[in-house]
Amino acid sequence: MNHQKSIISFIGILMLILLSACSGQPIDKKYVIKFSHVVAANTPKGLAAELFKQKVEQRLNDKVIVEVYPSSQLMSDDDSLEALAFNEIQMTAVSLSKYNRFTKKLQVFDLPFLFNDMDAVERFLKHPEGLKLLAVLEDKGFMGLGFWPNGLKQLSANTPLLEPADAKGVKFRIQESDVLEAQFLAVNANPQKLAFGEVYQALQVGTIDGQDNTWSNIYSEKFYEVQDYIIESNHNLLAYIWMINTEFWQGLPQDIQGELTVIIDEVNAAVMIMAIEINASDREKVVQDDPDKIISLSSEQLEQWRSAMKPVWDEFKDEIGEEVIEAALAANNP
Question: Is residue 6 one of the residues assigned to a domain?
């Protein structure tokens, strides 16, 4: 009798193995999501990535493993796009300007002085024109999961930039963005494209004179230590698009896709709140370090900067699409 039971048990196990092989889904298969990004773990993007990891661990720990690599530990933004395309990593959230080689639509987020505040950004991201932008890279194998705003950017330099004329000849680090290059050329500055991880040293040794970034990046990367002035300009939005490799996503079982979709929605809802709170907190930390370093522009001075950079809109409106720009502008009026 025991011998018969052993045979039946063996046959049952063998059947399970054969069924698993035929279905292409190994028993208890675990899916690994490698998530690479370049900023510090305590920034809005870094915390959002960790929040995603935590939620997945809580609900799908027996099925999905998330490995987060912050601060360029694994690779640069540029390398991560290639790695994502080839499924060497499964997820990333790089700044929108990095996608210019694939599409010009996302350049709308780089236009200077487009958004009055973060509330306007949130309204635009919920607008149909904003939501459509999530799908512009699907034919490249990138599936958009959401936009992660980091915050509005401030200018920093070793000279007080009160008016656009003060920027003449200043070497500014910029991301690889034609729009950002054009906006600094519009004020006769000297834009220099440079990887994020190289900025601190370049400022320290004088290869560049200034940069522009959110308060969270200015503090976490210690840019304030190697800059004499930070000018509260709020002139650009820094945002990321959260991407997953399309083929990887489509290969996930339906139940895992369903739970991940719920988690993704929860993380997207939390990102804006985190960005506002962290930037406000990090601004105060910089102020406490040296309050004389912060320059607040008058309304007249801000208008000079807006007027000087406004022609950039016309330069790129055909590439971006006037309907997208109009929707973004309309978001300034609730």
Answer: no
Q: CATH no. for residue 217?
A: 3.40.190.170
Quote the CA–CA distance of 151 and 324 in Å, as a whole number.
20
Which of 167, 152, 153, 160 is closest to 292 using CA atoms?
160
Dump pLDDT digits (tens) for 116-167. 999 999 999 999 999 999 999 998 999 999 999 999 999 999 999 999 999 9
Q: Coil, strand, or helix at residue 245? A: strand
- Quick: pLDDT tens for 170-211: 999 999 899 999 999 999 999 999 999 999 999 999 999 999
Tell me the whole-structure pTM to 2 decimals: 0.86
What does each C-alpha distance from 321 to 86, 129, 313, 325 come to in angstroms? 30, 10, 11, 7
Neighbours of 188 (CB within 10 A): 13
Joined together, the tokens standing for residue 203 give: 């400022």
CA–CA dist 64, 156 (Å, integer) = 42
Supply 27's token pair: 């028993």
